[in-house]
Write a structure and sequence with these properties.
Elements: H1 3-6, H2 15-37, E1 41-42, E2 45-53, E3 60-66, E4 68-70, E5 74-78, H3 88-95, E6 101-103, E7 110-116, H4 119-132, H5 135-142, E8 149-154
Amino acid sequence: MTSSQQTGNQKKRGPLTRASHWFQRRMNVRTNEKIRRKAGKVMGMDMLILHTVGRHSGQPRESPLTWFADGDDARLIVASGGGSRHPDWYFNLMAHPDKAAIEFHGQSAVPATPHVLEGAEREKAWQRITEAQPRYAKYQKKSERRYPVIRLTPR
């Protein structure tokens, strides 16, 4: 790969990364099935399924994510993506925010409005997130990028 292909979040996928991308999608399908069957908890964490539309493909996507309460209706999610880059679901969400929906155990997907938190609002939310799940603080320390925190509010 050329250096221009390796920069930023626009990396071309080689055979190995295609395989890992396929594996991740298979794992997402299995986790989504668990969320739908087991009251929305996986490994002791509250989970939701984020519905987005692929920014390039236009195809529907479903991503299992940990969520944190933010008031009565809103949920916070973190775009950690394994540390090195923003996850695909984040780019899909930002490309088509009007197509976002959230699904909880036993419920149909509900349209949602995403809002990326900044400044003091993000810091306050980040504090609550890392108190509830300290692993996020550990992940963040290992990454050179700042994880986006997104508030999802049902429409």
